[in-house]
Amino acid sequence: MARDWLDNCPWFACIVQFLDRCKDASVIGKVAYAKINLALAGAAVLASCAAAEAAGPVTSEDQACNRVMAVLAANKTYRAEQMASCDGGEDDNNPGYYVLRVNAYCRDPQGCGSVLLGWYAVEAATGAVHDMDAAEWSVGQRIDRNT
Question: Which of 43, 52, 63, 109 makes a 20 to 30 Å CA pair with 123?
Answer without folding.
Answer: 43
